Amino acid sequence: MFQRLFGRERHANRAITEALYAQIVAAARQTVFYSDWNVPDTPLGRFEMLSLHMFLFQHRLRGEGGVAGEVAQVLIDEFFMDVEHSLRELGVGDVGVPKRMKKLAKMFYGRTAAYDDALERNDLDALVAALARNVRPDAGTWPQATHLAGYVVDVSSRLAEQPTESIVSGAVAFPVAKPI
């Protein structure tokens, strides 16, 4: 028990968490999203892309039991700790953080429900609409939403091909988004 909490196993688990989260963040920060696909390069735009990639990771591990389920939960916890840290870096005070975190959590889970529903029904139009509504709510039309939706479908299928054992050991591969 002591070894699990403080020993090598805990260090290995932390290394896996950090590796997976770094890969998710790197996928979300691909320049093409912001330069070619017109995702706002703002804190909220980056939250949207990180949320989308976290959703895709969680979607891949959904229904997996054991270690995969634990990894999925640890990564969600890591995501929300990172979001909270980012809020503090942006100058949100201690009093405002819980309120903003509640709002961002509600946003995340609302988006993931919409994306999940569209993917499960294989409804590209619904996915395009959900992405446009969430990523560019300020735009009347956002033609690049179709490219992002295609990317989401591609990522989902490629993640499904990756062995669970590989993912839970710290390796997940997101495809590179192609410029328009």
TrEMBL record:
Domain Ubiquinol-cytochrome c chaperone: 36-173
Segment forming the signal sequence: none
Pfam families: Ubiq_cyt_C_chap
Domain of life according to the entry: Bacteria
Family: Belongs to the CBP3 family. Belongs to the UPF0174 family.
Protein name in the entry: Ubiquinol-cytochrome c chaperone domain-containing protein
